[in-house]
Amino acid sequence: PQVSFTLELEFSCSVLLDRAEVTLEASSDSTEATLEDNTVQLSIPIRYEPDLFLSSDASLHRYEVHPLGTFPHGPGPEFKTTVKVQNFGCYPVHNVTLHMALPALGYRRATFLSVTRVLADNASCVLHPSPEEPGQRGTVPVHPEDLLHVDR
C-alpha cells in the first residue's frame, strides 16, 4: 500500500533556521524481511517569504506642460520624491535592489526632468543616465498630443 500526506510546518520569528529535517519511520505488527527501507530522513532548505512594502510621496503633484516651443529657460520647479522600502516581516531581507525609471524627455528630446541630487538613508544609490538611443532602456520621446491620453 502507498500512503500520501502533507506536512505543514510553522516557524517562529525568534529562531531562523536554514534547514528543516524530518525523519519518517514506518512500522508494522507484521514480520518484515527488509527493515532497512522503513526509515527515511529528509533535509529541506528553508526560504522565508519577505513582507516588503514600497511607498512613495512627492512634494509636487501637478506640473503644467506648456505648448510646444514655450518651455521656460533654466530649471523649472524643484520637487522632492521620497521612496521608502519597508520590511514588515519578521525575517531580515538582504540584497534588495530597487530600479526606478524617471521620465525625462519630451517632444524632440526636450528635457523636462533632471535629477539634482540623491539622498539615501540606509541604502546605496547609483544614478545611471538613460542611453541616448530610443528603444533601449532609455526614455522614448513623447509627442505633446500623446500626453492627452496618458494619466501619469
Automatic annotation (TrEMBL):
<dbReference type="GO" id="GO:0007229">
    <property type="term" value="P:integrin-mediated signaling pathway"/>
</dbReference>
<dbReference type="GO" id="GO:0005178">
    <property type="term" value="F:integrin binding"/>
</dbReference>
<dbReference type="GO" id="GO:0098609">
    <property type="term" value="P:cell-cell adhesion"/>
</dbReference>
<dbReference type="GO" id="GO:0008305">
    <property type="term" value="C:integrin complex"/>
</dbReference>
<dbReference type="GO" id="GO:0033627">
    <property type="term" value="P:cell adhesion mediated by integrin"/>
</dbReference>
<dbReference type="GO" id="GO:0007160">
    <property type="term" value="P:cell-matrix adhesion"/>
</dbReference>
<dbReference type="GO" id="GO:0009897">
    <property type="term" value="C:external side of plasma membrane"/>
</dbReference>
<protein>
    <submittedName>
        <fullName>ITA10 protein</fullName>
    </submittedName>
</protein>
